[in-house]
Amino acid sequence: MTESLITARAFFERARAGQLTAVRCGSCGELAIPPKELCPACHARAWQPVPLVGEGTIASFTVIRVAPRAHAADAPYAIAVVKLQEGVSILGRIVDIPLDKVAVGLPVRFRPLGAQDQTSIGFGPLG
Ligand SMILES: [Zn+2]
Question: Residue 4 Cα, ligand 1 centroid: separation in angstroms?
Answer without folding.
Answer: 15
